[in-house]
Design brief:
The structure is a single chain. The chain is an alpha/beta fold. It is built from 5 helices and 14 strands. It has helices spanning about 35-45, 60, 65-70, 165-175, 195-200, and strands spanning about 1-10, 15-20, 25-30, 50-55, 75-80, 110, 115-120, 120-125, 135-140, 145, 150, 155, 185, 195. A hairpin with a 2-residue loop joins strand 9 (about 135-140) and strand 10 (about 145). It is globular, with a radius of gyration of 16 Å. About 50% of the residues are buried.
């Protein structure tokens, strides 16, 4: 499995390309902009993009959705509770950034426990609400992609519509911290971490 983080968009959100070395099938998690950079890496690796997965519906994680889908034919996936955010500039926060940007509907809606398969890789969907109602994390062998739920030494904001502090803490403690300590954490912003490090050092989780 190949994991490549690419900072994208006006907020430098972490977009991840996850690819199968054997079959060259790949997914892109959170294409928040700079689609040319994402496509360049896909081409360099010889990857065929199968899915575009949004960990939640905020503009800095979905801004490249439509352009990337049009260029590659990949299907867009988002949790069912965040699906309406794609078509609503207030819900996806674009309106708060000064532009009324909306996006086409997703191709597939996700729920807790779903499995996303590409090549020889499987991602398990963990519904981790709190930053948004439909926030998800994606678990695979040795790694978890946490979107804006869990960061290195911090957690996602809960003051946006659909956010709730108690809910995000419960999501982290029951779903994410249930993973082994050596699991690599790939967050939506900032640098990587591990479950063990966050369990010991994250001030929100002590």
């Amino acid at each position: 499995m190949i994991i490549k983080g690419i900072p994208v968009g006006f907020m430098g959100a972490n977009c991840y390309v996850v690819g199968c070395e054997k079959t060259k099938e790949a997914v892109v998690i959170d294409p928040g902009g700079d689609v040319a950079k994402i496509r360049l890496y896909l081409d360099e690796q010889g990857f065929t993009l199968k899915y575009i997965i949004d960990t939640h519906g905020h503009i800095d994680h979905i801004a490249g959705n439509d352009e990337l889908r049009e260029a590659t034919g990949a299907k867009i996936m988002i949790h069912e509770a965040d699906a309406a955010m794609l078509g609503d500039a207030k819900q996806n926060l674009a309106a708060f950034m000064g532009f009324a940007k909306t996006f086409d509907s997703a191709d597939e809606l996700l729920t807790d426990g779903d499995t996303i398969e590409f090549g020889e890789i499987k991602l398990e969907v963990l519904h981790t609400p709190g930053h948004t109602r439909g926030g998800i994390s994606l678990k695979t062998e040795g790694a978890v992609f946490t979107g804006d739920t869990l960061f290195n030494g911090s957690i996602g904001r809960t003051d946006f519509p659909g956010g709730d502090f108690d809910t995000i803490i419960n999501s982290i403690k029951t779903k994410i911290l249930a993973l082994p300590d050596d699991t690599e954490v790939y967050p939506g912003h900032m640098g990587q971490s591990t479950i063990g490090t966050e369990r010991r050092c994250n001030p929100f989780l002590r």
